[in-house]
Design brief:
Shape: globular
Structural class: mainly alpha
Order of helices and strands: HHEEHHHHHHHEEHHHH
Largest sheet: 2 strands, antiparallel
Strand order of the largest sheet: 1-2
Strand content: under 5%
Distance between the termini: 101 Å
Number of strands: 4
Radius of gyration: 37 Å
Number of helices: 13
Helix content: 40-55%
Length: 323
């Protein structure tokens, strides 16, 4: 028994001596490691990555461990490395990058508003435009869309495609004139060539043999685009009754577009009106794919305005022609 007490006393003396020899800036007591658990002592003594180096940061107010600069008080004792200091988010230097806000935070909404602020459309008459937009939506809901749905159900798809090609072919002369006014003589001649081929061999444009003859089709050009090429680029957004999204420039250009429309030169007013109605219904059927997008949009007015302006500017910049 005396031998066992002597051994126990000697072990206690050695343990106390080992604790006294540790650096002062380290903890004096450590938990006993448990099998399968994380060694907290090793985690604290391990070097931590710098926040500026892009290491993961804490979330929801949790502490972030930052390696503090060495000072006289933090100088290593007996060659030991300085211990890291735990700080809270509020104690971090403002020059260090902050964690990105969560998607649910208000900071994310402010960031999105800042990002999209530069893409805003010039719309000083928004209150008036919204009223016209609501009126056009009512007209579309009760008149145009039901007509388009009935047209789709009653007319087979190949016939509808032929109707679309017919009206596209009718617009080729106006496109050729506007291309010539914009200085694109070669494209103007190409458009006239398409019109001649499709009107004769394509049975008035119902068929499209010009494309098979390597005369590719392009989006039509109008007087509004020509005015923009001439320098009238910045124009206010304007929603017009029955006509929908426009700008002031495009509204003025309607007079020129009517002069260039072949349907306006028909002597039979009944035939002209029927063709114009069919053209409107055909155009509405081509907008059916975006109806679901409009329903899911947070603000239908903003969605229609921005989408229309984006496409309009793209066509003015001649991105669809690869220039």
């Amino acid at each position: 028994m005396k031998t066992f007490q002597s051994v126990l006393l000697a072990a206690m003396v050695l343990a106390i001596s080992a604790c006294a020899g540790k650096p002062a800036n380290l903890r004096t007591s450590q938990p006993v490691p448990v099998e399968g658990a994380v060694d907290e002592t090793a985690r604290e003594q391990a070097p931590l990555p710098s926040i500026a180096a892009g290491s993961p940061s804490s979330r929801d107010g949790a502490e972030i461990a930052v390696v503090a600069p060495a000072t006289d008080e933090d100088a290593p004792i007996d060659g030991a490395a300085p211990a890291p200091i735990a700080r809270h988010d509020d104690d971090l230097d403002e020059s260090l990058p902050r964690p990105l806000p969560s998607p649910e935070s208000a900071e994310t909404e402010d960031l999105a508003a800042t990002v999209y602020a530069g893409a805003a459309v010039r719309d000083p008459w928004e209150r008036y435009n919204r009223r016209i937009h609501r009126f056009n939506n009512v007209l579309d809901k009760h008149v145009l869309r039901p007509l388009a749905i009935g047209y789709i159900r009653a007319v087979p798809a190949p016939v509808r495609s032929g109707v679309s090609r017919f009206f596209r072919n009718l617009g080729e002369p106006a496109t050729a004139i506007n291309l010539a006014l914009q200085g694109d003589a070669s494209l103007a001649l190409e458009s006239l060539g398409r019109f001649a081929v499709n009107t004769t061999l394509g049975i008035g444009g119902v068929l499209d043999p010009a494309t098979r003859m390597r005369l590719p089709g392009r989006d039509g050009e109008d007087v509004g685009q020509t005015l923009a090429v001439w320098g009238w680029r910045d124009s206010r957004y304007l929603a017009m009754p029955f006509l929908g999204p426009r700008t002031v420039r495009d509204s003025v250009a309607i007079v020129g577009d009517q002069r260039l429309a072949p349907i306006g030169y028909l002597d039979d007013s009944g035939t002209a009106n029927a063709l114009q109605l069919l053209e409107i219904i055909d155009g509405r059927t081509q907008l059916m794919p975006i109806d679901r997008m409009r329903q899911e949009a947070y603000d239908d007015y903003t969605f229609v305005r921005d989408a229309w302006m984006q496409r309009r500017n793209h066509r003015i910049d001649k991105g669809d022609r690869g220039d």
